[in-house]
Design goal:
six-stranded antiparallel β-sheet; seven-stranded antiparallel β-sheet; 32 strands; mainly beta
Length: 426
Amino acid sequence: MGKGIWQDFAWVEQANSEVLKIFHPSDEYAALRPAAAPKIEVTHLAKGRYTVAVGWHDTFQPYQAQVVTYGTDNVRCKFGEFAEPTYVGRVGTTLNLSDWKSRMYVKCVDADGNLVDSRFVFSFSGRAVSATHKLRGPAAYFETTMEGEVTSNYVEVVEGAANGPFDGVRLSYCRDPLNFGLMTPDPGFPGGAVPNPDDFVSTGLYKEGAGFMSYNSSPDNPLPEIRRTSTGIYDVRLPGLGTPNPGLVQVTAIGSGSAHCVAGLPIASSPGSDLRVRVEGWRESKRVNTGFVLNYDEGVTRYQLHQGARVYADNWLEASYTPARSDNTGTFVDAPGTNTAYRIGTGRYRVHHTNLRVKPNSVWAGAAPAFELLGIAAPGGSYCKVEKWVPKSTGTDVYIRCYDAEGKLADSRYYETYQGHELRAT
């Protein structure tokens, strides 16, 4: 039987939980899962540091995760280091994929870079260990590691005809990410190291296959590429995923320190051409090099026939408007919804999704890069987060907060994506 995509979510509300004790986030907002599928496990390692363990997927094939804080403070979260496979089966038993989990390391900081405990929303997608929903596509994701050509550490695989939605898709992965090039210690996590972009001198181009956990759903095109054009600025190419109505990207920084990322709109010159995305790394008000994980979906959900919505809030100073790149499946198959964005104060926004009236699996928000407005260069370093979501009789409201580099509420363009359970027929 073909294997599909395994997608998982967690709203981690127990930010101040007992240190070094495993807990399970509430099932109230979790993904629908088979009875045999393990729950997400979260461990509060220390102040501002958490591990998130996800199972029921192939830990040795490409997968991706995103994290965003939620609440009313100016805290933001990132991944402190790259994910690693963890064996959870019993000693002496037959090894199989269900005996493994991927462990991801989340760190949360305030505007000054201090570690602080924080609630966060975690989302994940990868290759399932058994038959599940098929990939909606087109889609691409990867994690960057450093500047330079590093293909010698990677193995490329061409998937066979028995692998469902992955037929013919070219994948690449790093067999030993924790011994990958030069490392910078981060003693707060067990792995203790992540690649440091500042340690490498090169042409700045990540060759095909050089992104840790690279994936492209387009079977006739190569894996994503990325070129660092200058300090903290990356040009990402997603081969062959151009469409008349491109989707949005999600991006989360990876590495020690407090750097975070923003991403621009995916742009294509014509259908079937490459999508290009600009990603920027920031620490306070300065651009910096940083690793990151990027996820792109043309649709609003990774699964077929699952409900969701997405917006690009391009007129962020308007009191209310229909955002660009809006899409809304609605709750029912034959009842698509609409999206309206509202500005309710400096740096505070509300997005109303009509016809979405069930609890979300995941809500994500991120700032878009600043740009020149009326001849004045906008300050950089902004970031956005989810404040809360509120169900209504007409749909669902998602509240968003955006901050400048100093952690003060500030107006910003932003993206927002909402993912829910399966659509139903009326």
